[in-house]
Write a structure and sequence with these properties.
about 280 residues; alpha/beta; seven-stranded mixed beta sheet; two-stranded parallel ribbon; about 35% helix; about 20% strand
Length: about 280
């Protein structure tokens, strides 16, 4: 959405101070561990843009807590799987041969939004080293949440998502819906019915750029909004507005458990129907 459209449609001037007040009203607190997914344009016209959003989050959570954001680079994957947009098959080998290796200090996020992209560059923000599914974090537990992020199954048990789960952290959906809620992929990986696949990317191993394969689970976020609606019927989710953006604060552990159970029941019912 263009800046002009945001001003015209939202009709709301949002300051850093307003964001701080709104975050606290929603339930964000000092010392929390929170993973944030955001749409800047949904907030209204923010004075200071993504800088103001990040500073407000840091003021509320403080260094006693930890802020995590996705920093994924889905453009560093096998082009055979690309859909938005697809590229000609004749290009695939050349892309695999020439894609620059992931560099946590340099490689920009892809499709994560302006807040997540700027957060990556903020002082004292760390980044995990996964070449396609990295996360960034700031605060007390940043290092321990990001360390040990495995190449295989990057949203699974050796991922920052599982470390947030261990700490009973929260998810903040800031003007976005469940479809971008990465934590639900951890629930997906814990479902007995999720299939495995092989993915590949450009990365550096022993100082050399290589095209490397790794194991992953097949992801399907198409069901996430449906699962989210079902979750909200049986669990308390804090909802409110941050600026002009409808937002949610969710207990990550409860949603991950619910997602795994929902998928297990769904696929069990589907299998029974086929027999």
């Amino acid at each position: 959405m263009t800046e002009e459209n945001v001003i015209r449609q939202k009709q709301m001037l949002v300051t850093k101070e307003r964001l701080v007040t709104d975050f606290r009203k929603l339930g964000l607190k000092e010392g929390m561990v929170v993973i944030v997914h955001s749409s800047l344009s949904a907030l209204g016209w923010v004075c200071g843009g993504e800088v103001a959003v990040i500073l407000a989050l840091m003021e509320v959570v403080t260094e006693r807590g930890t802020i995590v954001m996705p920093a994924q680079t889905a453009n560093n994957t096998d082009p055979a799987f690309w859909e938005n947009p697809p590229v000609p098959e004749a290009w695939w080998e050349e892309i695999r041969r020439s894609m620059p290796a992931f560099d946590p200090a340099v490689t920009p996020t892809y499709g994560m939004g302006r807040v997540a992209e700027l957060f990556r560059t903020f002082p004292e923000v760390l980044r995990s080293h996964h070449p396609t599914c990295s996360f960034t974090a700031w605060g007390r537990d940043a290092k321990s949440i990001l360390s040990g992020h495995s190449l295989d199954f990057p949203f699974g048990e050796k991922s920052p998502l599982a470390r947030i789960y261990d700490r009973d952290g929260c998810i903040l959906l800031l003007g976005v819906d469940y479809q971008v809620n990465t934590s639900m992929h951890l629930g997906e990986s814990r479902s007995k019915h999720t299939k495995r696949c092989t993915q590949s990317c450009a990365m550096t191993i022993n100082g050399k750029r290589v095209w490397q394969s790794y194991e992953d689970y097949e992801e399907n976020s198409d069901l996430f909004n449906k699962i989210g609606r079902a979750f909200e019927r049986s669990h308390q989710v804090k909802t409110g507005f941050i600026g002009a953006a409808p937002s949610r604060l969710i207990q990550q552990r409860a949603l991950v458990d619910f997602t795994a159970q929902y998928l297990d029941e769904l696929y069990t019912d589907t299998e029974k129907a086929h027999h």
